[in-house]
Specification:
This protein is of the alpha+beta class. It has helices at residues 12-23, 31-58, 87-94, 102-112, and strands at residues 71-80, 125-134. It has two domains: 12-58, no CATH class; 71-134, LysM domain (Membrane-bound Lytic Murein Transglycosylase D, Chain A, Roll), CATH 3.10.350.
Length: 135
């Protein structure tokens, strides 16, 4: 009968398990595996911190500071229409508040002067909103 080098043990795996048990390493991972796990954890933490910083900085409002913001007060001015004037040309000339669109400004002129259309004629007098900068 042939004897195995692993006599007394059922398999090679049982021999390795028994050797690990005697050396105090039963079920433990190698130092290389522990180092790899630590490196992966450190990389994960760095990526999480970068993601949180990106979220923080991207969610900040992109508005100018209060000292740089301009505020406007609406006033009115009477003007006489010249040949070739249109409501949109008037908007380009008198609208200074960037928070008011051209279309909103034209609608404001129409409402203020009770116009039924956008047609204006040379010699007409219109009241237009003028925005004065408040400091």
């Amino acid at each position: 009968m042939m004897t195995s080098r692993f006599s007394g043990y059922g398999t090679k795996k049982e021999l390795i398990i028994d050797r690990n048990r005697r050396s105090g390493r039963a079920g433990s991972r190698s130092s290389r595996q522990r180092h790899k796990t630590r490196v992966e954890l450190a990389i994960s933490l760095v990526l999480i911190v970068i993601a949180l910083l990106a979220i923080f900085f991207l969610n900040r409002p992109m508005t100018a500071s209060a000292s740089q913001e301009k505020t406007y007060q609406e006033c009115y001015r009477s003007i006489e229409i010249n040949p070739g004037d249109t409501l949109y040309k008037l908007a380009d000339q008198y609208k200074k508040d960037p928070s008011v669109s051209r279309r909103q400004y034209v609608n404001k002129i129409i409402e203020t002067n009770h116009l039924t259309s956008q047609n204006i004629y040379s010699g007409m007098s219109l009241v237009v909103p003028v925005y004065a900068e408040v400091q």
